[in-house]
Amino acid sequence: MKKMVINTLACIALLAMSFFLASASDPSPLQDFCVAVNDTKTTVFVNGKVCKDPKVATANDFFFSGLRVPGNTSNKLGSMVTPANVAQIPGLNTLGISLARVDYAPYGLNPPHTHPRATEILTVLEGTLYVGFVTSNPDNRLISKVLYKGDVFVFPEGLIHFQLNVGKTKAVAIAALSSQNPGVITIANAVFGSKPAISADVLTKAFQVDKKVVDYLQSQF
Ligand SMILES: *[C@@H]1O[C@H](CO)[C@@H](O)[C@H](O)[C@H]1NC(C)=O
Ligand SMILES: *[C@@H]1O[C@H](CO)[C@@H](O)[C@H](O)[C@H]1NC(C)=O
């Protein structure tokens, strides 16, 4: 009897562990594909999106022409990211991969950000980019490089990274990401532009600056 209880507990622990592992990244597909549909009526949560009947899937479920168009870089940062993930290509559902096109004006910046669910591999199509990422605590080591047309660089999952166009001409890059839904946290926006705002007591201490500086930074978002 005691042995059975222990076995049962071990089974539960194993199941719990495999569930945890399975939900830590995009799941392996259990069928050829699972074209996403919006099903507002369902009350079931799935790790991904609900699938369309495969019989009615079409080529357009796997297609996106949005990366033909350069992003509009007329903004404060001088950059624009055009995503091509499961939100744009429903056929990517459950497949664990996506792309983004990044356009940079001369000296444009894709500011420090992280993808909570994906490693990124970036290819420069045009221009010259200074890129880098920072390792986790306690080292916080900056690993950076200048990339030229055709060069490739990797930003490991979850780490803060950036790209700056250091050339006098526009730049273009294609980022491939190891998730259908990589997510983005832009550091400055999340910390100084959250809604509602993080208390100044938190930010003055965290950044070791006056409240005036925090107010100024918050007013930028
Ligand atoms: C789901 O709904 C949103 C909002 O209505 C829409 O933008 C998106 O294209 C829809 N996605 C699919 C796969 O139908
Ligand atoms: C680009 O964005 C700017 C600022 O929002 C806007 O004024 C301009 O019309 C846009 N250009 C194009 C080609 O959409």
Automatic annotation (TrEMBL):
Residue ranges occupied by any Cupin type-1 domain in the UniProt entry: 65-215
Matches recorded under SMART domains: Cupin_1
Disulfide links within the chain: 34-51
Residues involved in Mn(2+) binding: 113, 115, 120, 161
Compartment(s) where it occurs, according to its Swiss-Prot or TrEMBL record: Secreted, Extracellular space, Apoplast
Family annotation (SUPFAM superfamilies): RmlC-like cupins (SSF51182)
Residues that hold oxalate according to the record: 110, 115, 120
Primary subcellular site in the record, as a coarse category: secreted
Keyword entries, A-Z: Apoplast, Disulfide bond, Glycoprotein, Manganese, Metal-binding, Secreted, Signal
Family matches, as InterPro entries: Cupin_1, Germin, Germin_Mn-BS, RmlC-like_jellyroll, RmlC_Cupin_sf
One protein family per Pfam: Cupin_1
Record's GO cellular component terms: apoplast
Record bears the keyword Disulfide bond: yes
Single annotated GO MF: manganese ion binding
Signal sequence interval, chain numbering: 1-24
Job description of the protein: May play a role in plant defense. Probably has no oxalate oxidase activity even if the active site is conserved.
PANTHER family the UniProt entry points to: GERMIN-LIKE PROTEIN SUBFAMILY 3 MEMBER 3
Family stated for the protein in its record: Belongs to the germin family.
Protein name: Germin-like protein
Taxonomic source organism: Vitis vinifera
